[in-house]
Amino acid sequence: MDGTEIKFDAPSVLRKWPSLKNERISNSWGARPYFVSEGTLDECIQQFMSKPASQHHLYEIPHRSSATVSERRPMRRTHS
User: SS3 for 57?
Assistant: First the structure.
């Protein structure tokens, strides 16, 4: 790793994208991820991992940097 520290106690939110036939509904259709749970990053990762692996690509845990809430970029897990 490049020396980046992961703060597992950081406040986080788990969100899920609306889907149709297990595929994300496009932003162009007005889809936005909805709230699933809130807690620490560790708690959100545990919640995420408890979901079926076949649906992991529908979830995101936005992270905070120096960006404002409206500028958050999602952390996405690639589906293998």
Answer: helix
